[in-house]
Structures are given as C-alpha cells and as structure tokens.
C-alpha cells in the first residue's frame, strides 16, 4: 500500500474507539503516516525500528507509546532472515481513539483536568514506563472483554494514570509541525521504507535519490533541510542503533555485529559507535550485561519478600 492510499484511509476511521491486537508483521503499517486520532500502543512481543515525528529508534518488547493527533509515525518489525539472531515473535495491542470522546466540559472537572493537558502534550509523543505501563497494559487487556461504556471508562482511567505519572518522557522536543502534505509524506515514507529495508547493505546517494524521485544534488539539499542531518550520518546512526540491539540481545562477536549492521569497515564502525554512544562496543555490551545481572538480582530479592 502506498502512503497516499493510507492517508486517504486512516482519517476516515468511523469508529471513535478502536482496540486491536496485532500478531503478524503484515498487520503493521510499514509506511510513514499520520491520522487525526490519538494512538496508544503497547509492544507485548517483538522488536524493530520506529520513526515518530522525525525521531527514529528501535522498539522492543514491553515498550508503550502514546502518540497525539497528526503525529507522523512508522513502526517496522524486524525483517528476519534465516540467519537472524532476533526473535520472530510479534504481538502489539493498539488503541486508537478520537479526542472528541471527551468534551471540554468533562475535562474541566478538577479530578480529571490533567487529561486535557495530556491530550495536548502527546502531540510530542510520550513513552510510558514502570508500574504505570504495567497498570495501563492491564487495563488494555481488560478492555477487550468490556462493553463500549466500560471501554471508554477504562480509557479515561488509563489517561489519568499516564497524566499523573512521573514514569513518562517525551519523544520530541516540541510538538510536531502541522501535518505534512500527501506528497511530502509519501516521499519521506518511500525514503524511510527503502532505508529500513536496506540499511544493512550499501546504499549510494544516487540510489536513494532515485527512490525519492529527485536528482542527487536536490536530494542532499532536501534531506539536510528536512532532517537537519546529512543522509550518510543518518544512515550511520541507524546502523549503530541496530548494532546496540545486537550487542545487547545476542552473543554475536563484535566483528559480526559490525558487518551485520551494514558496516564494511571495522575501524569506521568503532569510530562511529564511539562518537554516537560515547563508549566502545565492548564497553557498551558489558554495561548492559551488568544492568541485566542487577535487574535479575532485584527480581530475585522481590520474589523472596
């Protein structure tokens, strides 16, 4: 499905409340898109790359994000080959709802007025963590068995939990700009989709310029203006982002991580990694191994209490 097709479909969702459980990668919108509804998404199982606004990162099992109306986004689960070290399991709970479910009069009630601010703040994208995430995830699960009145009541409870929580952080430094034109969204979607599919291979400027239907010179200028970064730096950041996942989630050697992330030069890989992560790949892996050990010890102590 092309971005232009999705942009005509998503805004026409007639149900002001839509709760879905996705379990197959083909059910994901693997293109950059936006819609006027607000979206709460919980990754039960799975990993991959996500783009929210113009910020990209890897997502993994247990992540939860609240995205406001008009915030462009893309989530692409890992495309796994036979030699992939990452899990193929995939399950996501998505709740899409209209702001109009809650009147201004309702949100002016002092006990729930914090939700009014949240519905504006989530235009920056909000990551939900800790106990708040667990409570919201439980309410999402419960909502599958309720009637519409119960579903909306649960939704309001979820939003209150998030609004009052200290276990949240913004994804963007500011609210996303006004929704992009269909042509602009389609071009960016094509760029993202191609790069996310091929970043582990060599991608030339000529090649990606053709994807964007621009000349090389125009593409470089367009990309720098739109993303505030050169395409080569963007590509290196994406590759290093993927490398950090391989270092944490697999036992691949450092050299294997280097080449599986799209680098063909070990020296360049180490240089880029240290510049972006402020540590060497070995130091990064050791840090997260120690964190996992500490977390396991805390969990074991908690179970004995």
Q: What labels describe this entry?
A:
305 residues; alpha+beta; Jelly Rolls; Arc Repressor Mutant, subunit A; 2 domains; 6-stranded antiparallel sheet; 3-stranded antiparallel sheet; globular
General description of the model:
It is a single chain. With 305 residues, the chain is of the alpha+beta class. The chain folds into 2 domains: 3-170, Jelly Rolls, CATH 2.60.120.280; 199-288, Homeodomain-like (Arc Repressor Mutant, subunit A). It is built from 12 helices and 9 strands. A hairpin with a 2-residue loop joins strand 3 and strand 4. The longest helix has 24 residues, at 281-304. The chain is globular and about 60 Å long.
Principal-axis shape equals globular
CATH superfamily of the largest domain: Regulatory protein AraC
User: How many discrete structural domains?
Assistant: 2
Task: Give the neighbour order of strands across the main sheet.
Answer: 1-7-2-5-8-9
Question: What about the largest sheet?
Answer: 6 strands, antiparallel
End-to-end separation in angstroms reads: 52 Å
Q: Give the class-level CATH name of the largest domain.
A: Mainly Beta
Q: How many helices does DSSP assign?
A: 12
Order of helices and strands: HEEEEEEEHHEHHEHHHHHHH
Percentage of β-strand residues: 15-25%
Helicity, as a percent range = 40-55%
Structural class by SSE content: alpha+beta
- Contiguous uncertain segments of 5+ residues: 1-12
CATH architectural grouping of the largest domain: Sandwich
